[in-house]
Amino acid sequence: MESYRLFYWPQIPGRGEFIRLAFRFANVTFEEINAIDSLQQLTSPQSDLANNPPHFAVPILEVTKDNDTFMLSQTSVILAYLAQKFRLDGEQANVNKEVTRWHVQQLTLTALDWADEAHNVHHPCGPTLYYEDQKQAAAEAAKAFRKDRIPKFVRHFEKAITSNSSLTQACRLIGDKTSIADLVLFQSLEGLYFAFPHAMQKSVAPNSVLLQFRQELAQELRDYLHSADRRRFNDGLFRHYPELDPP
Amino acid sequence: MESYRLFYWPQIPGRGEFIRLAFRFANVTFEEINAIDSLQQLTSPQSDLANNPPHFAVPILEVTKDNDTFMLSQTSVILAYLAQKFRLDGEQANVNKEVTRWHVQQLTLTALDWADEAHNVHHPCGPTLYYEDQKQAAAEAAKAFRKDRIPKFVRHFEKAITSNSSLTQACRLIGDKTSIADLVLFQSLEGLYFAFPHAMQKSVAPNSVLLQFRQELAQELRDYLHSADRRRFNDGLFRHYPELDPP
């Protein structure tokens, strides 16, 4: 049995939420550390991390088993690790397991890319400047994001769901069981509907499989989503600025 | 024995080069397909990809073994796959092999992030607009990138190399054998020195381990780097605009 500590910013769902969803869905407990000084200490080039390479940024996951401890950072790496542990890696009967695992990672990365691009829209000139100091560039970025990128991502994931050959009744990206790729896409969709409600409504047709997908995942995650633990979107990765999403 | 086909844009090194370095370093042959119509066909939401999920973008790797074929996309996923096949995953004596593999992936992702950020500097408002249409935002992005981000990445990777506890004489990120993380960092450094020569010179001290690292990797890769096959940087992922990197 392993135990886990997640180091991430307080309050915002952010990239930490992709990881929280994996724990919540798998019903595995973890401790979350939000103290800013701990986070800064772990990401400082001065800290001694024993046998771990340095971390560029949070989220960081600490894994303890017996008397061994190691740490991982980079959202997609943490997710791939947990997917394997929690059997969220798309395992299905009669299908090459190794290839499926790589395909789940591929779709996970693309769903994370969508979130990254949504972040870059409100911070086009970099993460170290305030939104208020890059509003004009953000307006340009948002225009291209709404016109070109949102529709491209929407069509991509619609295709992934409809071409899933194991599809029975359920809308899933790979196989018929929920994988880490589904959880990440769900969270990215939630963030996009929060940040760009008008653009999303224009790009996602009323009969899109993405709407059915979103409903099914919300149903599977309902206890957590309705709990006080679920963090609300505010000014993190996904942000709603009305001027970036006109009706 | 597997055979490989890499689908990527013609001419530019781009994200394909991270993958080419893995093949070249491991001395494994592969076929490269650069025909634009093939690439467009593989990334179109209309194409039938048999048992593969859709691809959002190139690079795409096709793997054939016996009579089975599958495809992977997302640079970091392709690299993780090849690292395992080609033993570029940081294997060392007396160290937990699984944890090492995740650490190699973590460092690979951060080196790819550095390349992504360098790309976003010349395309802050999105990949679907020309540089010429976003020059002012690019100038702002470049300023923050030179001032804050380049030094942060430099210090991060210096720390990774110096804290590598298996370090003997060689400068490597994990262990003392070249891993996929080393190859990706090498390529990102080459791109950054091409795109931002002045900023890099200011941020990398003359006695930095990164300079020794770069020399050692160049030596290991010398046959390929000096061959006609090695693609020169031009207007791809890494671009040199003098106005974005003043002396």
TrEMBL record, chains A, B:
One of its GO terms (biological process) is glutathione metabolic process. The lineage of its organism: Eukaryota, Fungi, Dikarya, Basidiomycota, Ustilaginomycotina. Keywords: Transferase. Its EC number is 2.5.1.18. It comes from Malassezia psittaci. GO terms for molecular function: glutathione transferase activity. Residues 2-90 form the GST N-terminal domain. PANTHER family: GLUTATHIONE S-TRANSFERASE. This is Glutathione transferase.
